[in-house]
Every structure is written in structure tokens, then in C-alpha cells.
């Protein structure tokens, strides 16, 4: 004869596991969702053992490490995002994965309206962005904005003003890094925002110069 108190106790553990799982699914962000899933898996594992339900035990024994792994992954991702905001803007760690190129003075790297195919890191030399009369120097990045424009076109023409040594990263590799590496994604966003702000300040200064002149 089965003790009714034991049945009630076991059922309560099962219900608790279900409630926590539903709570996790109700969350709008991934970490609370995974926390709810992990706690629910633990609850159902205990329920499966006490209730003698082998299918319940096996299913949640498989789901527990998976949900725990995804939860840890997401926590690491968030931590890397926070760390990236405190680090200097540098692509040095990516140089081994980039292609090295040398260009002579006068060489055109890309023209306004071209379909973007790569991002460029200047190792040495000066590159002129013709339409906006801006010069890019050693350590600067160019060609990254075009991948994010609505029409997917180059926004200006880049010409080597001196002999240049460059490192390039293809658009395909850049897209993969953007999706997989939060530090790289944050770096690109900071570069793009800085360039837009610099252009805005330069346009404002020119406008004020015309007014006062």
C-alpha cells in the first residue's frame, strides 16, 4: 500500500518543476529562460526518481547538461560584452586571420557605389577618402560601414595617397566574427559611431565657418 503523504510530496516536486519551467519560458531574455529550464530539469529529475518514472528521468537527465551549457554560454557572452566596453579599440588579435596586401601610391582600393567585399586595416601609409576629403592613417579601419548600409554599397572612393601596407578581412569572415564575437561586434560599432560623430562635427565646423566667413 502506497503512502498518500509520499504521493503528495512527490507530486508537489513535479508541480514545482513544471511551474519553474513555465516561469523560465515566460521570460523575455535568454539567461532567466535557461535558469528556469535548469531548475525545472532538476525538479523533474527528482520527481522521476521518486515517482519511478524512467522516461521523465531520462529526458531531463539529457536536457539538464544541455540547458546548463547554454546558460553558461550566454553568461560568458554577456561578460565579454561588458569587458569589451573597457578595452582599447584594436584589431591586433585578428591580424593572423587577415590577408596582407601592399598597394602603390595612386592605387584605388574601392569606388563609391561598389559592392563591399572586405574591411581594411591600415598597417602603414595614408588612404584618401575622396568624396569627403578625409585621410586615414596607420591603425585606422575603413570599409566596414558599407556592409551595414541599406543598399549595401560603398559610400565613398578610397585611394592610396602613399604606398600602403594593409590587412584585409573579407565580408564573409567579418559577418561571422560579428555574429560570434561580441568584442569584435562592439569594436565595429564603436568605430562606426566614432566616424559618424567625426563627420557630423566636421560638417558642423564647416557650416559655422561659412556663417562667420
How are the SSEs placed, and which strands pair?
Layout: H1 4-26, H2 30-51, H3 54-84, E1 99-103, E2 108-110, E3 118-124, E4 127-129, E5 134-136, E6 141-142, E7 158-160, E8 164-170, H4 171-180, H5 182-212
Helix pairs in contact: 1-2, 2-3, 3-5, 4-5
CATH topology of the largest domain, what is it called?
Jelly Rolls
H/E element order = HHHEEEEEEEEHH
Helix content: 40-55%
* CATH homologous superfamily title of the largest domain: Jelly Rolls
Largest beta-sheet characterization:
4 strands, antiparallel
Q: Using the coordinates above, name the CATH class of the largest domain.
A: Mainly Beta
How many separate structural domains?
Answer: 2
Output the structural class.
alpha+beta
The radius of gyration is 27 Å
SS field, number of helical segments: 5
pLDDT averaged over residues? 81
The spatial strand order of the largest sheet comes to: 1-8-3-6
Tally the beta strands.
8
Low-confidence stretches: none
CATH architecture assignment of the largest domain = Sandwich
Rounded to the nearest angstrom, the distance between the terminal CA atoms is 100 Å
Fraction in beta strands:
15-25%
Spatial shape = elongated
Protein described:
With 213 residues, the chain is an alpha+beta fold. The protein has two domains: 4-84; 92-212, Sandwich (Jelly Rolls). Helix content is 55%, strand content 15%. The protein contains five helices and eight strands. It has helices at 4-26, 30-51, 54-84, 171-180, 182-212; strands at 99-103, 108-110, 118-124, 127-129, 134-136, 141-142, 158-160, 164-170. The strands form two sheets. It has a four-stranded antiparallel sheet with strand order 1-8-3-6. A hairpin with a 4-residue loop joins β4 (127-129) and β5 (134-136). α1 runs antiparallel to α2 (30-51) and α2 (30-51) packs antiparallel against α3 (54-84). The longest helix is centred in the first third of the chain and has 31 residues, at 54-84. The radius of gyration is 27 Å and the shape is elongated. The termini are far apart. The model has no long low-confidence stretch (mean pLDDT 81).
